[in-house]
Amino acid sequence: MINLQENPDLTWRFSLRQLDLFRAVATHGSLRAAARHLGLTQPTLTHAMKQLEHSVGAPLFIRSAQGSRLTPIGQTLLQHSRRALNELQRAQAEIGRLSGQSGGHVSMGFSAAGSTLLPQALPRFQATHPDVSLTLKEVTSAEHDPDWQAGNYDFIITSELDAPAKGDRQRELLTRLPLTPMTRKGSRWLQARSLHALQDALWILPEYGPELLRRLHAGQGLAAPQRQLMCLSIQLVFTMLRATDAVCLLRTQSIPMLRERYDLHPVPLDEPLDAMLYVCLSAPDLQQLTPVAQHFADCLRAVQAGQDRQARAARTGAPGKEKTRKA
Fold this sequence. Notes:
alpha/beta; D-Maltodextrin-Binding Protein, domain 2; 11 helices; DNA-binding transcription factor activity
């Protein structure tokens, strides 16, 4: 129980459990959805939120038939309670490490591009931290992921349209990924030689895709294509590409694998597109990761650096494969 009554200017009295429940309601947008997620009855959760509002001395939610929306005071409390709960989790992990306790937990989110690092990074990490439990979730963007908004990840790997600024404490650039338009074998769009010739194609796009497509076409003085299909699952992307003549921007360095595994082929444009994704490691504060989360991030960095070296060697025709260093 947090009791601030010793200070006459601070009269709040609430538990960390109440803050955690409050964060869940804010994340899920309604008491009913949060109660279902937490395995609680709705009256139990409602009572806890009323107690918290009584302690704060102000309403935290605007309740309606559509759900529970945070008041300005609720938004402020959510922002600071996320930081407080995350700091306590880091403190618990650090104290456990200092006292010689094994175990711990790392929660991570990965975009499709970031997930390619896992097969090599995971064995590296588990070789030195076999007792640490891991939670992995596929994400498309930090902006619309409720677990990221709730502060439930140690870090996430996402694909961004813009590189992070120098000194950014929340985003770190891991690598740049050139993209190439691809379609299935036999597609009529393989005859296209310009972006303008693909104007009537059906474009399959991830969440960032519409803005990327708009930028590419605007750069050539074109309007963005009208036929766009948003697809947030990479497996569904490949299913649609194999079943239709749709076009999708995919990683240039993955062309050999995509040709062999999915029979997808690059559209041979006369001028390559300046299409680029920036794969970033993001956290509320990259300098405040727990020790085990920091080590997993180091493993991912090492694997990405090794992949980048191999890609450069392949482009220059250097013989052999370079070995990645252990983190």
